[in-house]
Amino acid sequence: MRLYQGIRSLILTLFRKILFLWVRTDVSGNSIEALGLSPEKPVCYVLQYSSLSSRLVLEQEVIRANLPGATTSLPVKNGPSHSFFFLYRRVGRSFRKRQAPVPTPEFQALVRYGLENPEKDVQIVPVSLFWGRSPDKEKSLVKLLLSDTWSVAGRLQKFLIILVHGRNTYVQFNKPFPLKQIIEEYRHSEERANRKLARILRTHFRKVRQAVLGPDLSHRRTLVEGLVRTQAVKEAIRETAVKEDIAPEKVRARAYKYADEIAASMSIVTIRIFEVLLAWLWNRIYKGIAVNNIRVAKETAQNNTVIYVPCHRSHIDYLLLSYVLYKNGLMPPHIAAGINLNMPILGPILRRGGAFFMRRSFRDNPLYSTVFNEYMHVMFTRGYSVEYFVEGGRSRTGRMLQPRPGMLAMTVRSFLRDHRKPIVFVPVYIGYEKVMEGRSYLGELRGKKKQKESVFGLAKSARNLGSSFGKVALNFGEAIHLSEVLDDVRDSWRDEAYSSEYRPAWLNEAVGELSQRVASSINASVAVNPIGMIATVLLGAERLAMDEGQLVRLADQYGDLLKAFPYADTVTLPEGSGKDWVTYCESMGLVSRQPQKLGDIIGLEGSNAILMTYYRNNIQHLFALPALVASLFENKSSLARERIVHLAGVAYPYIQSELFLKYQPEEAEAVINQWIDVLVEQGLLVAQENDRIARPEEGTEAMLRLRILSRFIIQTVERYHIALGILRKNGSGTITAAELEEQCTLLAERMSILFGLNAPEFFDKSLFRNFIANMQKNGVITTDDNELLCYGEGLDEVADDARLVLSVEKRQAIQQVTMLGV
Description:
Elements: H1 2-19, E1 25-28, H2 32-35, E2 43-47, H3 52-65, E3 84-86, E4 89-91, E5 98-100, H4 105-116, E6 123-131, H5 141-145, H6 155-165, E7 169-173, E8 177-178, H7 179-183, H8 190-213, H9 220-228, H10 231-244, H11 248-262, H12 268-285, E9 289-292, H13 295-301, E10 305-310, H14 316-327, E11 334-338, H15 346-352, E12 355-358, H16 366-381, E13 386-387, H17 406-417, E14 423-432, H18 438-445, H19 455-461, E15 472-476, E16 480-481, H20 482-489, H21 507-523, H22 530-538, E17 545-547, H23 548-564, H24 578-587, E18 592-594, E19 601-603, H25 608-631, E20 638-640, H26 641-659, H27 665-681, E21 686-687, E22 692-694, H28 701-710, H29 714-730, H30 737-754, H31 765-777, E23 781-783, E24 789-791, H32 793-805, H33 808-818
Helix pairs in contact: 1-3, 4-8, 9-11, 10-11, 10-16, 11-16, 12-14, 16-17, 17-21, 20-21, 22-23, 22-24, 22-25, 23-24, 25-26, 25-28, 26-27, 26-31, 29-30, 29-32, 30-31, 30-33
């Protein structure tokens, strides 16, 4: 018997070595730490389908990863001579065998062992294997034959699949299931214990397969034709035909054209080509891609329709997220792309990569709106993963933009219509050390007209590929379940009756709450990098320059501040020290060095002074509350703690709305108190008797740190002060919100020029609009029947509080510019 086992093992080893002369694998989860294996308990691997090639791949990867051996016998009487089994076995005659969910002898022996030895446990590790990870394709019989899909391949088909896709094999080890826990309740029924374990494993493999391959893809033409045949589109066709007095057939042809213009045509061949090209591209222009918290995407994709909602900083965002998901064993999402990207050459390629195209506005085109809504509903209900940018466009300032409600409202309405498939949002922060479009953003912020995308513009951008853009980070935030958001807004939403439009009276409230959670979750996943840290410190210096030694110390100290009171578990901080960060920024050409005998001076020159505000703005929200507390000591040497909390609390709702801070207003008091304690511990503030807090003595290093920290937020408060001053000058009931917004923008732009403010967002019209809207929301101002803004004494209190934050110099500067006499 031993001789037979030895010969058999030798033959299998020979087959494995021959197989891996051709096969190349990409593996995830193959470590004891990732799996969380206990060394005291035996391990048994389980594969879904019976296959010699799958067994050989498993054995090879177990050996490579130093995992407990798949060829080691389990302590199971009459059980397998190896520590793995197949969930399904082949049944039928020799040449017509098929895979079926029939328990294998090894499976049954393992369950029997667990029942007979209740004190023993076995760690069952499911292993999924995909030859090429190809979803069903729509036209090619050859592709269907040679793709690893939802269907099970026969022996000849598997041989051909290995020949074609063997060099693109994906293996995923998953966390173990405890045998003891699974069969605990069926100690007296082996049959029921068998069924339970088999059901759990079948469900697990199905979820992993959907996460990796995506749902079964329909023929695109069938999908497009199906959209036109839906009841909603039929009704829209009828109404359009009557309204425009044209034949229904012509309107139906127009609807078909809309559907064809919108629908993606995802091709696994295109995705694989993208994978190769993008791997080359990233290695050429980036020094590395850091991926954090990817487990959220992997876990969420198994049971839900996933909507990836990244921040939008660059056109590269589209490609980068899909690439990272694919490399981590997840199907790339269908991506909402602006119709402007549906240009010759590029458009068809993006469509095959998963992009579906949408027009910028379709409010006045009900037929197009209906077709697009139906397309999105199909995506959601069939379980396709989708990606869209809630900001609408790319941020030119580095800040998170106010979310636009369109796609979010569409998603909520679809879910109200059919909520059998859960929808979960996965926020993604994409952080660049040097954004590719940085220089063009500078031009647009200075008033240059935004360039329309074109093939020629794309070719022009390709010239940048010889440049280095540093590192890039993708941080996945915590998942947001749409059902939980709706529960918080309207706990009876499941039981309500809806009109055909699915627009309940509380829809706007639900979309508003959802948009705030998405935006704040993205910001709570920020990747702090050396560029952002050095930009933050240098932009806090009066002359945008600093002694190198002092800059290094301040950078380290502000880094320590972030560590002392972490904003969120999903925030990542840069490695190294302040000295390393300065050197790195210099190597990237973003700071200049002026040698000097008493110590080199590091500064920002020319366009870099403005460009670095972009990177400062990426992380500004992390310092918002400590900077706000620090700013209260511009005019006061000491304050009662209660007064500090009150003043910061008054400003908090406006700063929260602008910077998408994660703390709710009712949490602000506790968080502000925590920051006061941290600032005292760090030596930036001094605790006195009678619960008073004082600033450090003038001329000390600690006072310099406090003053620079306050400048991280001071321009935001100045902007509020401008708005309040203009409103009070005009008087209650004399100016509309639009007029106030326009005057604020003009005066802020003028102040920026006169006083050399380098922050382009200082005169951003949308930020004034948001501040005015929040004052209305908080009841500080109201609107009369003529749309004029009215206010009472509450506004004066807010204005007086704002003045306390500003230095005398700043108050006089604003007074001079606005000529308000505030």
